[in-house]
């Protein structure tokens, strides 16, 4: 288990409100991978800040209100998972996206979605089923126009080879970003793949490192 400290970039004036919180990972071991993760996180934070500043510069007298928040969803047995939510207040809506940082510190490697499942499992088929179930739930709540929009969007997502995900104690969570959808649709954000219910699909690596740890 590694330790986590919070660092912040804050700014407040007439046209800008920034509250960017991000993690700094601390460990006496495996310093190269730790430094690489911290550098990647910091670069993503700065890139987000710079992109919003560029947009604000092009829009005179435009209020920039941005924030980042992170969550430590797993930190055990040398594996760490940290999703960071990048948010921008745009009018009445909070537009956000998620980057996730999933690493095996001991092996000094990033964990990809294909590492989660065994080689005989078509993991995109599993994700597709989860999405289909969510679409059926939404179909009872959305207007026909929004339903069709969501359906078209999710069909494109299904073919993404490495969707954004994070690891929790009981599941893998596939996450999507609100800025890619109609901002009034708040329910469509995460899909869980349960370690307990879907254990037969998991790789030996995940079973040994997470579910049996």
TrEMBL record:
Family matches, as Pfam families: DUF3298, PdaC
Domain Deacetylase PdaC: 10-88
InterPro entries: DUF3298, PdaC, PdaC/RsiV-like_sf
Signal peptide: none
Transmembrane regions: none
Domain DUF3298, first and last residues per copy: 114-195
Protein name (record): DUF3298 domain-containing protein
Organism: Romboutsia ilealis
